[in-house]
């Protein structure tokens, strides 16, 4: 069985070597990985847009939506928006 720290390390290496990613996508994905780790590497995490924007230091909703959708298109995450600011969206890290 692969350790959780090895999984995280491999994901960070993958991100560092992926020329398709820009600094905003890396910032958002790094914050998602931090939340995933803090949540005990559960299958999915639930979080609001506001929390993600704050943690990734985004000031623009447009940039947030662009980056979260690109991370999904690039197969780093799956993203299920809830459109309810109190419930939070569901994100799954694709290992």
Note down, in words, how this protein is organized.
The chain is of the alpha+beta class and 95 residues long. It has one domain (4-93): Orthogonal Bundle (Arc Repressor Mutant, subunit A), CATH 1.10.10. Helix content is 53%, strand content 13%. The chain contains 4 helices and 3 strands. It has helices at residues 4-17, 23-38, 49-55, 61-73; strands spanning 45-47, 77-80, 89-93. The chain has a 3-stranded antiparallel sheet. Helix 1 packs antiparallel against helix 2 and helix 2 packs across helix 4 (61-73). It is globular, with a radius of gyration of 13 Å. The mean pLDDT is 92.
What is the topology?
Elements: H1 4-17, H2 23-38, E1 45-47, H3 49-55, H4 61-73, E2 77-80, E3 89-93
Antiparallel strand pairs: 1-3, 2-3
Helix pairs in contact: 1-2, 2-4
Strands of the widest sheet, in order across it, are 1-3-2
CATH class: Mainly Alpha
**Alpha carbon gap, first and last residue:** 14 Å
Tally of structural domains: 1
**CATH architecture, please?**
Orthogonal Bundle
Characteristic terms for this protein:
about 100 residues, alpha+beta, Arc Repressor Mutant, subunit A, 3-stranded antiparallel sheet
Summarize the entry for a quick read:
With 95 residues, the chain is of the alpha+beta class. It is 53% helix and 13% strand. The radius of gyration is 13 Å and the shape is globular.
């Amino acid at each position: 069985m692969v350790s959780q720290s090895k999984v995280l390390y491999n994901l960070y290496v993958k991100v560092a070597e992926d020329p398709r990613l820009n600094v905003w996508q890396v910032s958002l994905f790094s914050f998602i990985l931090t939340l995933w780790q803090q949540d005990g590497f559960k299958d999915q995490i639930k979080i609001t847009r506001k929390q993600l924007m704050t943690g990734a230091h985004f000031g623009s909703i447009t940039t947030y939506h662009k980056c979260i959708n690109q991370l999904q298109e690039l197969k780093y995450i799956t993203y299920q928006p809830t459109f309810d600011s109190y419930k939070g969206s569901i994100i799954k890290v694709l290992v």
